[in-house]
Amino acid sequence: MLKKLAFLIVLASLLLAACGTAAPAATQAPAATDAPAAAATDAPAKVYTYADMTLCYPQLGAESDWRTANTASFKETAEQLGVNLVFSDAQQKQENQISAMRTCIQQGVDVIALPPVVEDGWDAVLQEAQDAEIPVIIVDRSVSADKSMYVSHIGSDMVLEGRKAGEEMNKLLPNGGNVLEISGTTGSGAATGRAQGFRETLNANITILDSQTGNFNPTEAKPVAEAFLKKYAGEIDGFFIHNDGMAEAVVEALKAAGVKPGEIKIVSVDGTRGGFQMMIDGWVQADVECNPLLGPQVMEMALKLMNGEKIDAEVLTNETVYYPDNAAELLPTRKY
Ligand code: GZL
Ligand code: ZN
To answer: pLDDT of 8-65, one tens digit each?
Structure first.
């Protein structure tokens, strides 16, 4: 028994001694060899997603169904994509839009999408955005500022919309006649372009008796229509009205004056549900489409800008003309 114990003691001491000389366990990485260090890989630049975006949309107002649909397009798209939308309503006043932009610049938003109420007066605030390195996309109506002051414009060719309206009026009054125009916001790209295109296209046998702004809203358009019906009673063959909201007010005035649907030809613009209903009821004979649903395209453009990608300087929306013959069939499909 003692021999076995002695053997074990000797064996254990031999083992301990061996351990004592073993190279220490590798407790640290081997010293760097002189192999070339691995090249530092360029970490890919961060790719921004919609969740990273803060988009400023200083909306011009809530003057029409078109505008309401335009606002809904931006709010719903932002909700769906997870974009942080900084939204405001300027009640159709440029100074309110400009101060909303200045707040966004202070806040350091990623992109400003500006739907300008009028064409002029943007140079200073566009310069401030540029100095703050915040890109601006002009949405819907145009601005007169130099194209170097903003990255892109997306919207309608308003002159083309006016030309389409002129062509429709020519078809409605083949033997000529007298028309009245109730225009949109004075100084806006939409009103200026539509008026220009209409005049460029109208046949020589059609006379524009008078033109007055209704500022794109029915409240201001109605008294204009009532005054026109008094002043030009019996002489009026047609109306060119720059949006459906104002056309609805004109129809109210025509009804009150005892005019029947179709007795006076009406060409309107937008293609809202209200416009389709007026075509179904026989009041409006042609409605030039103007698409407000620009939210998805604008946010796609803004994300490209955030990721340093190029975007087109001009994106024109494709638009058509709607007519009474299939208005009833199309009305249920209308998104605005
Ligand atoms: C045109 C848009 C106009 C609509 C009106 O693109 O700016 O403003 O035609 C709206 O209905 O008020
Ligand atoms: Zn349009």
So the answer is: 555 555 554 443 333 333 334 444 444 445 455 677 778 999 999 999 999 999 999 9
Give, using CA atoms, the residue closest to atom 1 of ligand 1. Answer: 190
Nearest ligand 1 atom to alpha carbon 292: 6
Q: pTM for the whole thing?
A: 0.86
Q: Please identify, by atom number, the ligand 1 atom nearest to the C-alpha of residue 66.
A: 11
Query: Is the CB of 194 within 6 Å of ligand 1?
Result: no
Strand order in the sheet with 238-241: 206-213, 177-183, 238-241, 265-270, 286-289, 321-322
User: Mind listing the domains of the chain with CATH numbers?
Assistant: 50-156+293-318 (3.40.50.2300), 158-290 (3.40.50.2300)
